């Protein structure tokens, strides 16, 4: 099960808990406090069962996500999006879409780094950064060239280069399979 699947599962758990809490409130209004208490206990037990998996994933994901943002140029993009020259409504809409695409991409690349459930997530990130150093350097060069004029078009070009991180093959040697 991938990291994204685990997070999606956790979102589902929280969504179900939200429904159960709403149901408990409805029960309180219609059926009394005893049934409401039972429903609340079941909901809390359900959440406790899934909390452990979530707690294991959260710090690992956060550390890799933060470091990847610094090293690959995502943070530079987020900072420039806030101060980009917006001449029109269309530019503002494009920047809002670009921000969402960058957030999705940042999450996806982080999940890619953690996909193999490495024992040391930071070491896995270091391997990823070394493996993709030439591409990240090209992104950094574009960022330097665009530093004086962070227009929506310049940011879109750089974002497209960052998006290639998702598509780049991982050329690390595969572990040998038993014969």
TL;DR of this structure?
By secondary structure, the protein is an all-alpha fold. The chain has one domain (3-167). Helix content is 81%, strand content 0%.
Q: What's the main sheet like?
A: none
Total domains: 1
**Ends distance:** 25 Å
Q: Report low-confidence residues grouped into runs of 5 or more.
A: 171-179
Proportion in β-strands: under 5%
The level of helicity is over 70%
Q: What is the 3D shape?
A: flat
Oligomer: single chain
Number of E strands: 0
The radius of gyration is: 22 Å
Secondary structural class: mainly alpha
**Topology order in helix (H) and strand (E) letters:** HHHHHHH
Q: Compute the number of helices.
A: 7
Question: What is the overall pLDDT average?
Answer: 77
Topology record:
Blueprint: H1 3-30, H2 33-72, H3 74-83, H4 89-114, H5 121-131, H6 133-146, H7 152-167
Helix pairs in contact: 1-2, 2-4, 2-5, 3-4, 3-7, 4-7, 6-7
Protein model, in words:
This protein has one domain (3-167). 81% of the residues lie in helices and 0% in strands. It has seven helices and no strands. The chain is flat and about 65 Å long. The two termini are 25 Å apart.
What are the main properties of this structure?
about 180 residues, disordered C terminus, 7 helices
């Amino acid at each position: 099960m991938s990291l994204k699947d685990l997070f999606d599962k956790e979102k589902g758990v929280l969504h179900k808990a939200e429904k159960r809490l709403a149901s408990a409130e409805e029960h309180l209004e219609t059926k009394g406090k005893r049934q409401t208490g039972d429903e609340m206990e079941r909901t809390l037990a359900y959440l406790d069962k899934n909390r452990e998996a979530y707690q294991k994933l959260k710090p690992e994901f956060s550390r890799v996500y933060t470091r990847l943002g610094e090293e690959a140029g995502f943070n530079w993009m987020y900072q420039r999006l806030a101060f980009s020259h917006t001449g029109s409504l269309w530019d503002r809409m494009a920047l809002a879409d670009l921000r969402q695409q960058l957030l999705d991409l940042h999450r996806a690349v982080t999940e890619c780094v953690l996909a193999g459930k490495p024992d040391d997530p930071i070491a896995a990130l270091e391997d990823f950064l070394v493996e993709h150093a030439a591409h990240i350097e090209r992104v950094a060069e574009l960022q330097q060239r665009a530093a004086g004029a962070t227009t929506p078009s310049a940011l879109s070009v750089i974002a497209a280069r960052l998006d290639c991180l998702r598509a780049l093959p991982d050329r690390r040697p595969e572990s040998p399979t038993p014969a």
